[in-house]
From TrEMBL:
<keyword id="KW-0665">Pyrimidine biosynthesis</keyword>
<feature type="binding site">
    <location>
        <position position="152"/>
    </location>
    <ligand>
        <name>substrate</name>
    </ligand>
</feature>
<feature type="active site" description="For OMPdecase activity">
    <location>
        <position position="94"/>
    </location>
</feature>
<feature type="binding site">
    <location>
        <position position="222"/>
    </location>
    <ligand>
        <name>substrate</name>
    </ligand>
</feature>
<dbReference type="InterPro" id="IPR011060">
    <property type="entry name" value="RibuloseP-bd_barrel"/>
</dbReference>
<dbReference type="InterPro" id="IPR014732">
    <property type="entry name" value="OMPdecase"/>
</dbReference>
<dbReference type="InterPro" id="IPR013785">
    <property type="entry name" value="Aldolase_TIM"/>
</dbReference>
<dbReference type="GO" id="GO:0004590">
    <property type="term" value="F:orotidine-5'-phosphate decarboxylase activity"/>
</dbReference>
<comment type="similarity">
    <text>Belongs to the OMP decarboxylase family.</text>
</comment>
<dbReference type="Pfam" id="PF00215">
    <property type="entry name" value="OMPdecase"/>
</dbReference>
<feature type="binding site">
    <location>
        <position position="39"/>
    </location>
    <ligand>
        <name>substrate</name>
    </ligand>
</feature>
<feature type="binding site">
    <location>
        <position position="242"/>
    </location>
    <ligand>
        <name>substrate</name>
    </ligand>
</feature>
<dbReference type="GO" id="GO:0006207">
    <property type="term" value="P:'de novo' pyrimidine nucleobase biosynthetic process"/>
</dbReference>
<keyword id="KW-0456">Lyase</keyword>
<feature type="binding site">
    <location>
        <position position="243"/>
    </location>
    <ligand>
        <name>substrate</name>
    </ligand>
</feature>
<comment type="pathway">
    <text>Pyrimidine metabolism; UMP biosynthesis via de novo pathway; UMP from orotate: step 2/2.</text>
</comment>
<feature type="active site" description="For OMPdecase activity">
    <location>
        <position position="97"/>
    </location>
</feature>
Length: 278
């Protein structure tokens, strides 16, 4: 049977990667498959939005290198919010270099991403050495990796054979690759002449950007679909919503953030319940 017919709780109970198990457990416990992407450029803004959105999401996604006044205290406060509100932190770093270089980028420099981000992600462009390099740092710390098997933007090149190669590479690193950034259930085979081939046993978390209820795009290539299209229609597991919630710029006021979080949480959860029933 397809992964999309199983509940988050059932999947959490059997997941071999601790951080994936933790994420699926949070989705079940808080009844949310919402990941809020907080793309603001100030420390105070990032913390304010994470505090407001925290109760409604399973994950907060950061782009830490856009924060003008980054300091170590920011990640400490973010970690405290993650504990308080029960969410995971995903640094959307999109690593894309050879193994030795990404190992250093992940562990060192100003950001020391591996020390605070439960999840990060990578492109497979450099080959599988990138997975060996990142795993050498992240796995001992109990971190998880998403591979960018597909992207949301118009005209992106992560398609076809490239997407397939991402899934194959993930299967060779089952201890560290917990899932994919993708627009659909890339880990399950399409219907073939011999019938529907089931997933090959592994459970991958599909996290999907390009989600919005009020807009179809942003004039810079982003394309939006609804939570229902993403979760029920395409079988993805987590919706990632940025501007639809924080509003762009320095961010909406807190009441608006809470209102939008509730709206997306509800829509994402309804789509999940509808998918279980279909
Ligand atoms: F991998 C990807 C992708 O394919 N599309 C994306 O939009 C990542 N993203 C990120 O999701 C992007 O970098 C933003 O941080 C976020 C989407 O933000 P939005 O405001 O909801 O468009």
């Amino acid at each position: 049977p397809s992964i999309t017919t199983r509940t988050y709780a059932e999947r959490a109970a059997k997941h071999p990667i601790p951080v994936a198990k933790q994420l699926l457990d949070i989705c079940d416990r808080k009844k949310t498959n919402l990941c809020v992407s907080v793309d603001v450029t100030s420390k105070a803004g990032l913390l304010r939005i994470a505090e407001a959105a925290g109760p409604y999401c399973c994950c907060i996604k950061t782009h830490i290198d856009i924060v003008e006044d980054f300091d170590q205290d920011l990640v400490q406060q973010l970690q405290a919010l993650a504990d308080k509100h029960d969410f995971l932190i995903w640094e959307d770093r999109k690593f894309a270099d050879i193994g030795n270089t990404v190992r250093l980028q992940y562990s060192s420099g100003i950001y020391k991403i591996a020390s605070w981000a439960h999840i990060t992600n990578a492109h497979l462009v450099p080959g599988e050495g990138i997975l060996t390099g990142l795993a050498s740092v992240g796995q001992p710390l109990g971190r998880g990796l998403l591979l960018l098997a597909e992207m949301s933007a118009k005209g992106n090149l992560a398609t076809g054979e490239y997407t397939t190669k991402n899934v194959e590479a993930a299967r060779r690193h089952p201890e560290f690759v917990m899932g994919f950034v993708a627009m659909r259930r890339v880990d399950e085979r399409e219907e073939t002449a011999g019938g529907v081939a089931p997933g090959e046993g592994a459970d991958y978390v599909i996290m999907t950007p390009g989600v919005g209820l009020d807009s179809k795009g942003d004039g810079m290539g982003q394309q939006y679909r609804t939570p229902d299209e993403v979760i029920r229609g395409s079988g993805c597991d987590v919706i990632i919503v940025g501007r639809g919630i924080y509003g762009g710029g320095d961010g909406n006021p807190n009441e608006e953030i809470v209102k939008q979080c509730k709206r997306y949480q509800e829509a994402g959860w309804k789509a999940y319940e509808d998918r279980l029933r279909q």
